[in-house]
Amino acid sequence: MPGGDTGLKTTKASLAARSRPAGVLARLAQITFSLYLVLLLGANSQATSGGPLAWWPLWQLPTSGGDWAGVGVVSLLPPLSAAAWLAARALSGRRRALVWRPNRAVWPLLALVGLGVLSLAWQCGGGCPVGSGLRLALVVSHLAWVYLYTVNERPPLFPIVAAAVLLQATVALGQFIAQRDLGLRFLGELPLDPATPGISVVMRGSARWLRAYGLTAHPNVLAGSLAPLLLMLPVLGRPPTGRQKAIALLVTVVGFAALFATLARWAAVCFALGLAINALPALARGGTARHRAAPGRATWLALALTGALLLAVYGDVIVGRTAELETPVESRSLWERQRDTGIALRLVAEQPLTGVGLGQYLPAARRYDAWAEVVHNVPLWLAAELGVAGALVWLWLLLAPVARRGALGRFAPLTALWLGFWLLGLLQPAPHPLLDLRSALLAGLVAALVARSRPTRADLPDPPASDNIAGWVS
Q: Do 261 and 371 share a domain, yes or no?
């Protein structure tokens, strides 16, 4: 019928007219998403450091230390990306297809957020902590945005991971070799002089040897970023072309060398645990297992050769960091950890049900010691602020996603990433997904990768055969 043909043509024209702006908006969402993650994971994510968040300040936002800092135009990228993404989905008729995939990784995170909200509500009895509430909202919204966008759109993650690792690692290796900062203040690099008190060093013989900071506030923060980013690479799958394989190998080697240069002991243990879990499927089959998500032989060989070379050149630095714990530098570090752990346990014993309140750890701890710092144990920190329930939810978060069939087989790379990431918090103050922006971004990525491996009734269509979980094909 002529009328029917005309109506069909009109519908097709309308869809085509809507698809063009939808495509532009989708591309804008992906570019701003990628740029923001590269800037905040590849440079200093603290606005007080003068890094990307401080460029061209627009307003003041609360920091993790309870202060306020000027935040600039880079902070506009997340709302711009989210708005463009949702508008693109609405124009393309996919608004109702948005999924969040409730799973064993998401429920504990939601429970942790719920405890944080309840803690803030409880504090309102003595005056609502506006700064803490605003920071919780900002950090959690970042985590949710990264998680939902990654789960629904499957953006190409390898370029983001590669750029962040190479940027941080290049600066870190330059600092470690030159034994000074490189003057990159606009990226948030700190002034680094090994002779300055408060700068993190180890003893190399009788000399103070600078640990690599990269573009972070501390070597342990850098290590806590590099370890999960490197463990993401096996999860993202093997690159399909020779050039991409070479780039992935370069990222792995340079990132591994920078992780060494941080001289972060616990991060090294967590990374080694991740490597061991990645190796289990092949070892279980006599070294014959070939899975696209497992590190290839070239990767294992490159890591072994790089490690041997670093030990040959800097072995005495490792000795100063691990064996000579009686030096003033190491003994003071251990004493401070013990002091802060004792204070945290005292706070938990005093208020086991409610804790001292989200964001109130330092004021409470400094009632006992004016020099107290945040305890280097995330579950203990959570217990001190949110009550014992906070530590229990953290334990649930750690174990639930890996308690599944194939955790050490076909899902070994995901298990390695999940455990290697969250176990960092046993001897470090991060990842803390309620108070730390970098932790929230990484947690969103890690949780999304786990969620994408779990099919649900409302699952997205499978990607084409040419596309793997990394999204090499954009």
A: no
Using CA atoms of 58, 61, 67, 72 in order, give the dihedral in degrees to the nearest 10: -30
What single-letter DSSP state applies at residue 464?
P
Q: Distance between alpha carbon 15 and the CA centroid of its chain, in Å?
A: 39
Residues 171 and 299 in one domain: yes
The residues, ordered by sequence, that sit 6+ positions from 398 with a Cβ below 8 Å of its Cβ are 419, 422, 423
* One-letter amino acid for residue 372 of the chain: A
Residue 16 lies in a domain: no
pTM, two decimals, is 0.88
Query: Is there a single domain that holds both residue 315 and residue 200?
Result: yes
d(CA 365, CA 356): 10
Residue 298: domain span: 157-324
Is 327 within 8 Å of 97 (Cβ atoms)? no
State the Cα torsion 100-104-105-110 to the nearest 10°. 70
Among 324, 346, 363, where does a domain finish?
Answer: 324
Residue 278, C-beta contacts closer than 8 angstroms, at least 6 positions apart = 231, 234, 294, 295, 412, 413, 416
Neighbours of 56 (CB within 10 A): 9
Do 175 and 262 have their domain in common? yes
Return the pLDDT at 464. Answer: 38
**Is 8 contained in some domain?**
no
pLDDT beneath 50, residues of the chain: 1, 3-4, 8, 11-13, 15-17, 288-289, 456-474
What is the pLDDT at residue 187?
92
Q: What digits encode the pLDDT tens for the residues 303-358?
A: 999 999 999 999 888 887 777 667 777 788 888 999 999 999 999 999 999 999 99
